[in-house]
Every structure is written in structure tokens, then in C-alpha cells.
User: What shape does this take?
Amino acid sequence: MSDRPDSDGFELNDNPDAPIEELKPGPPETLGVAWGLVAFLFLAAIGAVFIFQNNEAIPVRFLWFEFSLNLWIVVLGIVLLTLIADQLMSLSWRRRKRKKIAAKAPLN
Assistant: This one.
């Protein structure tokens, strides 16, 4: 055997009595920039600008209701309702797919 790396990346050691290197304490390794946090802060800043620029009240008519709301509240409400509808539809789709897969699976 030699001191070259094996196919799994570990080095092969010819001397089994050689001392094992001890772990040395030191600063933890960082993973770099937290891109999720950067994206969240960017989207939060964009959202804040949107709220400040669209702060005027607008009349809203829905079915027989009529009221006045800030434009950003209306847009945010529509976005939230869309997300909820999307999750409900995908839940229904996943449930139907699971039932179809379970029906095709052999029973043990």
C-alpha cells in the first residue's frame, strides 16, 4: 500500500502504529455569505419601498361589500390568498397522486 489517496479520498497508511493526529481546537470554518439572509433583506427592502410608495387609500368593492383600504394591503391580501390557494391545490394534487401510487403498489 502507499500514501496516496484511495478512490474514496482517504489516504492509505502503511504503518498501523503511526500516531493519529489529534483534533486541534481553532475557529470554526465559515460557510461564506448567507445568501438566504441577503435575499430576505433585499426582498424586505423592496417590500418596504412598495409600502411607502403605495400608501393611499383606494375604494374596494367585492360582491355587496364596499370599503376603503390602502393599496399595499389590497396587493398583500391578493398575494396571500394566491399562496393559500396554491398550497391547497398542490395538497389535493399530492393526495391524489399518493392514492394512485398506493393503488398500483403490490400488497405484502
